[in-house]
Fold this protein.
Amino acid sequence: MDIHNTELFKGVTYEECNKMLHCFKTEFREYSAGEHICDYSETEKYIGIITKGSVKIIRTDENGNNSILEHLGENGIFGKYIAYATGAGDGIYVECETPCEVVYIGSEHITKRCSNACECHSRVVENMFDIVTKKSVELSRHLYVLSSRSTRDKLLSYFRLMCEQNKNTVIELPFSTTALAEYLCVDRSAMTRELKRLKDEGIIIMDKRKVRLITGDDFNN
Amino acid sequence: MDIHNTELFKGVTYEECNKMLHCFKTEFREYSAGEHICDYSETEKYIGIITKGSVKIIRTDENGNNSILEHLGENGIFGKYIAYATGAGDGIYVECETPCEVVYIGSEHITKRCSNACECHSRVVENMFDIVTKKSVELSRHLYVLSSRSTRDKLLSYFRLMCEQNKNTVIELPFSTTALAEYLCVDRSAMTRELKRLKDEGIIIMDKRKVRLITGDDFNN
DNA sequence: ACTTTACTGTTGCAAATGCAACAACTATAA
DNA sequence: TTATAGTTGTTGCATTTGCAACAGTAAAGT
């Protein structure tokens, strides 16, 4: 994906974008699968935009256990403004998943205005706010799901959120059930058991990764 | 608190701030305790800064149950850029807690640059990013705590985060234990039971809202 | 001073959950 | 093809947890 078409430059013409990119002194780098891209603590002064491939944001806790905080594909963004909480002995780093290309931009270029006060620059700032806000909503959604006390309710609120987002009563899980259990922070086997109950009780219909929610008001479509 | 001293205008001189405030066409309003300030869905085009008193952000779910998403005191900010996830039938609104004063600013004034390209305006943008990022970190911290599977681990990771933040092995809970249970999304009585166990096992010492974590390496200070 | 509301501590019990372990299956790489 | 790693479904069991209920205390308002 061309950097001109990424979310950060949405609504900006090709020419304007080029001018800005030049003005921003961007850097470009390529990585191969498995490569360590950077430690998150180093990203205090720049953002990275993934224009090709995918990366993982990984937390390593004091005991050396890894957990994946996020998958970022094309158009994904990390670094300044996109922060994660860290515990005491924890480290967070960015790792290349599939061969990828990253464009780096110094964060001061985003906020500082050049003397021209170009209109397009305002647009970039707006876009950056959109991106950050979207991330917050994502976190907030996750929190919303986790605030349910039982596995059953976690599953149901997750399904409901997804259905609402897709404006549909059928959803396709974006990851494996193993990963879903991780997302919901519950034991996988216990979750499978609960899914079985939901199926048996006719509350959901599930086929592979397709899930249909059977609600009281529209069980016939 | 004077609007000039709020986080959004940090690092901006009094005069510059005045100019901007004039340029921004801010609005000012006062509310009395219990008053409904606004529905969160209306805040698509502005932000509100609390210069006096406090407000609550409240979610009402489809069954009419209320839950407090956040308390905001002086310097607190809500509206555009500060988003919350909503479920299907949920509504989110802002309610006055103690008599308060709110300054409203149209969000377009923050991102758009005026023709002067004043330095101070960049500073405001930076500050806004800081505020939003801080919120994200807060969400991320909450998520981190909730990702523990047991009540015990939730308590411990919460205590550890607090200790680290305060650079101390003693913390003072910022809310009642009832509210803590809500924050951890666990049953209050079950949590009290677990706290008792932690005390009995000598892992924590607790007196009212003061908690001391007894770790392996520094049990004597 | 009295009323009311909120907070805290406790307990019994049924139900939910994490954990461990195993087998079947799929996908991927060698 | 075989080997290897990852995913899924299942079950027994000990433990944790939510829930309901009650009593005592603290705080706040009238």
